[in-house]
Amino acid sequence: MELKKVKGNTYYISPDFIDLGLYRLNKEQCLLIDSGFHKTVKNEIIPFMEMNNMTVKGVLCTHGHIDHAGGNNLLKMTYNAQIAAPYVENMLGENSYNMYVLSDNLRFRVFGDTIPDFSYKTDIVINPDYNDFYFLGVDFKVIKIYGHSPYQIGYITPDNVAYLGDVLLSERMIRMTKLPYIFDVGNDLASKENLKTLECDQYILSHKGVYDNIDSLIDQNIDHINSRIEILVDILRQPKCFEDYTADIVKTLGINADLRKIVYLQRTVRSYLSYFQENNLVDAYLDKNRILFIKK
To answer: Residues 79, 137: one domain?
Structure first.
């Protein structure tokens, strides 16, 4: 892993499969934008900081998912790092029960032993009405990119570099991702479209890469979601219950699924079904005590 400069004091590092923002406060101190998994911090980030004689003074979270905030607790214990997270997203990390409730998943032990390590206490909550956020002496602009998660936000550094979390996927990730995880499909599409108003010098994506211009990439991401909408609605030409619908989606999209993936997938499928009903694309009715969905 290496420290990659984008502009001014704005850098990024690439542990595992994610790009994390890094803003240098001075030669010895920095803050991270997202922390990655707990194991990422333990095995890669802390050794990297020690090798480069740096300490992490704080973490700006884009959202509360475990691959973005899973290392917060260890950074807090190791460096006494301050944790700032968006409203609602901060509650995902408070304890395992909040994660289950807010992600609408059954309490299967699909997360292994990651939950105890993941839990952390947020020091500062970034409220939805914030357009700017002053953190550790640095003024960041806040970008509201709701949808992938309830209140995901991005940040623009003083160097006019945007860190966009999971609102966009790179071209490679689009090709790899059969059905992107989304909490609210309507908000996600609107957030993608709103990115076209940004005028930043460069853009960092969590998954993955640095871009000078994202206009084409925005359209590719929107087209990808719309293509999934078309496929998922078409599967409902015949009425299906939720379990059968999920199974048909796995088959149609060629998803290599295991129990863990199915649990995540079901949350995404519910999001699409909500979007379909909100936009009058699908009906739901009760038949022999089963909820059935059918294309209008």
So the answer is: yes
Those residues whose C-beta lies under 8 Å from the C-beta of residue 129, and which sit 6 or more positions away, are: none
Distance separating alpha carbons of residues 280 and 203, to the nearest angstrom: 35
Work out the number of other CB atoms within 10 angstroms of the CB of residue 246.
19
Predicted pLDDT of residue 11: 97
Instruction: Give dist(CA 19, CA 15) in Å, integer.
Output: 7
End-to-end alpha carbon distance in the chain: 51
User: Do residues 245 and 231 make contact, with C-beta atoms less than 8 angstroms apart?
Assistant: no
Domain count along the chain: 2
Please give the radius of gyration of the chain, using alpha carbons only, rounded to the nearest integer. Answer: 20
pLDDT at position 106, please?
A: 52
CB neighbours of 50 closer than 8 A, spacing ≥ 6?
A: none
Verify that 191 and 216 share a domain, yes or no. yes
The sign of the CA dihedral 222, 210, 6, 19 is positive
Ordered mean pLDDT values, 10 residues apiece, the chain (296 residues): 95 92 97 93 95 96 90 94 92 67 53 59 93 96 96 97 97 95 96 98 96 97 98 97 96 89 88 96 94 95
C-alpha 62 chain-centroid distance: 7
Cβ(23)–Cβ(31) below 8 Å: yes
Pairing assessment for the beta strands 202-205 and 161-163 based on DSSP bridges: parallel
CATH assignment of the domain containing 253: 1.10.10
Domain boundary pick from 225, 255, 277: 225
Q: Before 208, cis peptide (omega within 30)?
A: yes
Tokens found for residue 236:
């409902």
Could you write out the three-class secondary structure of 242-290? HHHHHHHHHHHHCCCCCHHHHHHHHHHHHHHHHHHHHCCCEEEEEECCE
